[in-house]
Amino acid sequence: MRYNLGRAYQKLGVFHKADAMYRESLEINRRLFGNEHPNVPFLLESLASVHKDSGDWNKAEALFREALNIKQAIHLKTIGNDPKHPADVSYLLDQIADCIVARGDLDGGEKLFREALAVRRKLCGKDTRVAYSLVRLANLLIARSSLTEAESMFRESLSIQRKLWGDVPPDLAESLDGLATITWRTLRKPSDPKIQQLMKEGLERV
Fold first, then answer.
1. Engineering a disulfide at 6: which of 22, 88, 145, 177 sits with its beta carbon 3.0 to 4.6 angstroms away?
2. What phi, psi does 95 have (nearest 5°)?
3. How far apart, in whole angstroms, are the C-alpha atoms of residue 182 and residue 202?
4. Planar angle of CA 179, 180, 182, nearest 5 degrees
5. CA 94, CA 67: separation in Å to the nearest integer?
């Protein structure tokens, strides 16, 4: 009940009430099940997302990191495999990276995006999650003017998506848009046929 209220308040942008509801639910679950129960990192993620939505990057990062540490501890106890690589670690790495980048630390964000990509490559092979991770990292690399590597990642993402789905998924648009941006920054000619074609393809996927 409290969790559902928290979700409702979050969607309405009433962040202080969402925070209160999530915290109450978190305290109840910790009291009933202990700290290393799957409900606990799930609720920490929800709480972190409230602070991310409200722009409190420091608090959001701290909560995402707490959720990450607990998930790794649960994974180590229940599976006994590599504690750094449970399947949902990559999502939390992305969220932490978002917070770090929002504070202006592009180096730290890039490191975590690369780690998330490595986790997805190890666990997922070449599927849509890897394509998604490539796009996130490529967008950051554009901001850092690392255009050659960014282009390579956008093209790999496109290749993965097209092999899986053909030209149907709308997610293709972001990769096409990224390639158009790189081409424009390289050529500085918005009317260039390469740019026009990439933009046209992107619009058709939206």
1. 22
2. -65, -40
3. 14
4. 65
5. 13
Contacting residues for 77 by C-beta, under 8 A, at least 6 apart: 36
pTM, to two decimals: 0.81
pLDDT tens, residue by residue, 15-49 = 999 999 999 999 999 999 999 999 999 999 999 99
Selection from 163, 159, 158, 167 nearest residue 204 by Cα:
167
Span 75-118, pLDDT tens digits: 777 765 555 566 678 999 999 999 999 999 999 999 999 999 99
